[in-house]
Amino acid sequence: MTAVNPDPCDILEWDTACFGFPVARIRGDVLTRKRVRQIDTWCQRTGVRCLYFLARADDAGTSRLAENNDFRLVDIRMTFVHKAPNAIRNIECVASVRHARSEDIRPLQDIVRESYHDTRFFFDTNFPRHLVESLYETWIKRSYEGYADAVLVAEIDSAPIGYISCHVNKESHTGKIGLVGVSSQARGQGVGQVLVLSALEWFSTQGMEKIQVVTQGRNVAAQRLYERSGFLTYNVQLWYHKWYT
């Protein structure tokens, strides 16, 4: 019989290592007064400095408890789903798409540093900006090294100008798009959409029947990109951060 872990939160090793202080995330997506007390006691005991909470958007009681207990709303998490990855239409684009190579890591990290200013980590100014950039630099590097199942790169004249990371769950036949980024010089030329459509095509070759992607509520450009590519809104959730001193 598997023992049940009674802890209300999990320490996040990757975030903790990147930011240099203990970071944790609440288990579950609802709050009660009793759970808030348990969470605060656990965080104080373990020395957590920053706590993440991904809440249901339709639970007013949870939102009130979060607001009344020093949680700060930092993001709206939008999940989109594409249920027909075979229905892919070609578009004209100046870039070609291929799988990433080791020599792409440095130029992709350059794109990473300018690509995620809409995220909750940049929005929450308690995080030093250079450490947030380092988080995403590590993320794209680890994605290439095996954290993702594939990283596709858009290029012009052999120079990388964008990327998209892909994850597969063969048991559920579900694919997930992770990081997407396009260099500032190449935006507005259809590079983002050709990357998304190329990812859908790759997912189709892997037998995936449903594709998910997540973006920020404040990132309207990304939402429109996914809608143009055949995705529909699936879920809306609220990201909160709580800081302990």
Short overview:
The chain is of the alpha+beta class and 245 residues long. It is 35% helix and 31% strand. The chain is built from 8 helices and 10 strands.
**Helix and strand composition category:** alpha+beta
Number of domains: 2
CATH C-level class of the largest domain is Alpha Beta
Let me know the average pLDDT: 93
Per CATH, the architecture of the largest domain is 3-Layer(aba) Sandwich
Give the tally of β-strands. 10
Instruction: Tell me the CATH superfamily of the largest domain.
Output: Gcn5-related N-acetyltransferase (GNAT)
Quickly count the helices.
8
Q: How much helical structure, as a percent, in the residues?
A: 25-40%
The main sheet comes to:
10 strands, mixed
- Report, as a whole number of angstroms, the end-to-end distance: 39 Å
Strand order of the largest sheet: 1-2-3-10-4-9-8-7-6-5
| Strand percentage | 25-35%
Low-confidence stretches: none
> What is the radius of gyration?
19 Å
- The string of secondary-structure elements, in order, is EHEHEHEEHHHEEEHEHE
The CATH topology of the largest domain, please?
A: Aminopeptidase
Which term fits the overall shape?
A: globular
Descriptive report:
- The chain has 245 residues and is α+β, with helices and mostly antiparallel strands.
- It folds into two domains: 9-70; 82-236, 3-Layer(aba) Sandwich (Aminopeptidase), CATH 3.40.630.30.
- 35% of the residues lie in helices and 31% in strands.
- It is built from eight helices and ten strands.
- It has helices spanning 13-19, 33-46, 60-68, 105-112, 120-123, 129-147, 191-205, 220-228; strands spanning 9-11, 23-26, 50-56, 72-82, 96-99, 150-156, 159-169, 174-182, 210-216, 232-243.
- The protein has a ten-stranded mixed beta sheet, with helices on both faces.
- Helix 4 (105-112) runs antiparallel to helix 6 (129-147).
- It is globular, with a radius of gyration of 19 Å.
- The relative contact order is 0.21.
- The model has no long low-confidence stretch (mean pLDDT 93).
